[in-house]
Amino acid sequence: MQTELSRKLGVEHAVFGFTPFPAVAAAISRAGGFGVLGAVRYTAPDDLKRDLDWLDEHAGGRPYGLDVVMPAKKVEGVTEADVEAMIPEGHRQFVRDTLAKYGVAELAEGEASGWRITGWMEQVARGQLDVAFDYPIKLLANALGSPPPDVVARAHDRGVLVAALAGSARHARKHQQAGIDIVVAQGYEAGGHTGEIATMVLTPEIVDAVDPLPVLAAGGIGSGQQVAAALTLGAQGVWLGSLWLTTTEADLHSPALTRKLLAAGSGDTVRSRALTGKPARQLRTEWTDAWDDPAGPGTLPMPLQGLLVAEAVSRIQKYEVEPLLGTPVGQIVGRMSSERSVQAVFDDLTRGFEKAVDRINRIAGRSGT
Amino acid sequence: MQTELSRKLGVEHAVFGFTPFPAVAAAISRAGGFGVLGAVRYTAPDDLKRDLDWLDEHAGGRPYGLDVVMPAKKVEGVTEADVEAMIPEGHRQFVRDTLAKYGVAELAEGEASGWRITGWMEQVARGQLDVAFDYPIKLLANALGSPPPDVVARAHDRGVLVAALAGSARHARKHQQAGIDIVVAQGYEAGGHTGEIATMVLTPEIVDAVDPLPVLAAGGIGSGQQVAAALTLGAQGVWLGSLWLTTTEADLHSPALTRKLLAAGSGDTVRSRALTGKPARQLRTEWTDAWDDPAGPGTLPMPLQGLLVAEAVSRIQKYEVEPLLGTPVGQIVGRMSSERSVQAVFDDLTRGFEKAVDRINRIAGRSGT
Question: Known InterPro entries for this protein (chains A, B) (predicted)?
């Protein structure tokens, strides 16, 4: 699985693996892919520094990258307290009532919560970058639009390629205009924030829209067949996130959540605003149902919703309240039915890829291959 | 593009083209694909007979098929009048108000309307089959569940393969249990009735679920690249519907609708219950917006919604009321940007397929191909 981009980055397989876990990112890079560590949960620079130290030591000298969540537009002088004040009391009451209905216990005194939202604040992301640029990262990805121009320039000065996610050709062209090097075409079926256009349609559309920029296909990719299909559509690589959640190197801190992921079918996800206020695909739970119920108060816009539910989500996760327990994940969750090592997943991807190429050659009547 | 199934059916390319237009079906079969005529609009057996005569004469001796819309469950003793009586007056008033708002004129005295719904009644579909089995059709497809057992048996007695559409692995397995020969895996991005699982995920899932039955991939396929990707995913062929709507052989009877289709992007469709009461992907219009608006009365379940809007849809189409004018079509509409002959579309598909196979072979390091 070699493309111009994978050769440029010096990796064996054009498989980019996004993960919040350093152990998974390191294993992806060691297996010949390109591990990308999600930084959103690191609100303290020292925590990120510790995990990047570990990742750098365990990536076997192979390249790796960092994914941040940084808004392109700066919101000046707005504090978390200002945003908190914009949340209606009725919505706060709905959170309390829903948690009470399921008997969800409180966090212990002084226990941290709410990293989901704070990691999205621009100053936090900039703090992450100050740390990350001391490491030999080869790629900086942004999950929320193009990064600000000075960040793009800073990355380019250090020879770091910049990638950004897009759910439409229009967004992809905006990234190109912002000087982005790689567009991640994130299809409807993907986990996390995603638009309505499916990978099969979106990938070639974005490839054409930003030519000659390289495009990574994301969404619905969890087997070697799907990798082959995505590369057939013109992508220079694939961007996989969900698939690693049930690897043995992942540390979800929740056996119940792992069980739910392993049991879920492709129809058990929902694209809901419950988590952040923007549509994000995740496991469908009684929590997402409550927010999507027309009888309820409905969700608030980003960033209010994320702030509103941050503590509740922490409590649900800590106490593993099964009916409410979820996570961002794509429709490919239906294929995640056993815990395997990252290397085993890679072996499966490469074997499946070769078989798929054999198959399409037979169909094309190219018997020599 | 040769698979076991295309060889069994004696066609050059494993490309199945669904279309309501005999001229398009004939041209697809002549071009080396498999033309499938949609029968739903033929309420009078003689009309279907006339068009099948024409198709048989113009298919160049190549195989073709028929697509009906037949419910698996029989509803005994219910007439169209019974169903009409179940429609609330508030919904009827909403139709009148919406049409009045846009100044949509009445149909002329005695002018027919409402074929969309009547073609779905089982007795009409059975009348269509009585006609169709006199022709050398090689495939009978059903768009609404498995056909009734006696219809499957009747088809098999005549050596006719039976296909049925499925939006989930569960539905596909039900088709297999009902003795269906071919499952059409219809992804989220497809035009018409469709589920929520995208083609990239759905195709391999259904291939595995019904193995060894052959699967056709539908949804998001409008280029040779996409054909190659779908076949890579394990399909034995592709099922294309939307792509033919803007061919020169198609007869939409509406230059305005053709213009809208040619201008639409991949984001200009919506999966709405406005047309039939079940979610169907179609052009997003002010008509679908009105039905999907939480401030409106909302849609009725199938078959009430189809019956409710049948006359209105006829009026909108006849008078080409542009803001309201739509049609079922998939996200691939973004690729339909010029009127071309069916043969030109096929040439493009086969060229694009070969290029896509070249590309994936380069990525796989198989330089000999």
Answer: Aldolase_TIM, NMO
Return the residue in B363, B366, B367, B369 with the most chain A beta carbons within 10 A, the one to mutate for interface testing: B363
Compute chain A's Rg from CA coordinates. 20
Mean pLDDT within B138-151: 92
Partner residue opposite A232 with nearest CB, options B14, B187, B360: B360
> Would you state the torsion angle of the CA atoms of residues B2, B179, B150, B35, taken in this order, to the nearest 10 degrees?
-20
Alpha helices in chain B (DSSP H): 4-9, 22-30, 45-58, 80-84, 89-101, 115-118, 122-132, 149-157, 169-177, 199-210, 224-232, 255-263, 286-292, 304-318, 342-363
DSSP class of residue A192 equals E
Using DSSP, state whether B145 is helix, strand or coil: coil
Q: Which of B201, B229, B356 sits opposite A334 (nearest CB)?
A: B201
Q: What residues in B contact A265, CB-CB < 8 Å? A: 169
Task: For residues B187 and B334, state if they share a domain.
Answer: no
**Residue A127 and residue A16 share a domain:** yes
Q: How far is B287 from chain A (nearest CA, A)?
A: 20
Q: Are residues B297 and B184 in the same domain?
A: no
Alpha helix stretches (DSSP H) within A216-279? 224-232, 255-263
Of A14, A294, A369, the CB nearest to B366: A369
What domain range includes position A192? 1-71+120-246+344-364
For residues A142-150, average pLDDT: 89
- Angle (CA) B198-B203-B205 rounded to 5° is 100
- Cα A73 from chain centroid? 21
Q: Any chain A CB within 8 A of the CB of B364?
A: yes
Amino acid at B197: I
Cβ–Cβ below 8 Å for A14 and B363:
yes
Count the Cβ atoms, other than its own, within 10 Å of residue A12: 16
What whole-number distance in Å separates Cα of residue A314 and Cα of residue A319? Answer: 9
Q: Inter-chain contact B219–A198, Cβ cutoff 8 Å?
A: yes
Return the pLDDT at B89: 97
Confidence of residue B180 (pLDDT cuts 50, 70, 90): very high
* φ/ψ of residue B367, rounded to 5: -75, -20
CATH of the domain at B31: 3.20.20.70
Measured between beta carbons, which residues in chain B are less than 8 angstroms from residue A294?
294
d(CA A239, CA A215): 10
Question: Is residue A335 situated within a structural domain?
Answer: no
Do A348 and A320 fall into the same domain? no
ipTM of model: 0.95
DSSP B68-96: E---SS--TT--HHHHHTTS-HHHHHHHH
Query: Chain A: nearest CA to B348, how far in angstroms?
Result: 15
CA distances from B281 to B166, B268, B329 (A): 15, 10, 6
Q: Which residues of A touch B228 (CB under 8 A)?
A: 232, 360
Per-residue pLDDT of B192-216, as tens digits, reads 999 999 999 999 999 999 999 999 9
> In the predicted model, is pLDDT for residue A125 greater than 90?
no
Residues A32 and A180 in one domain: yes
Instruction: Measure in Å the smallest separation between the Cα of A171 and chain B Cα atoms.
Output: 12
Instruction: Assign B59 to helix, strand or coil.
Output: coil
Asked if A12 has any chain B CB less than 8 Å from its own CB, the reply is no
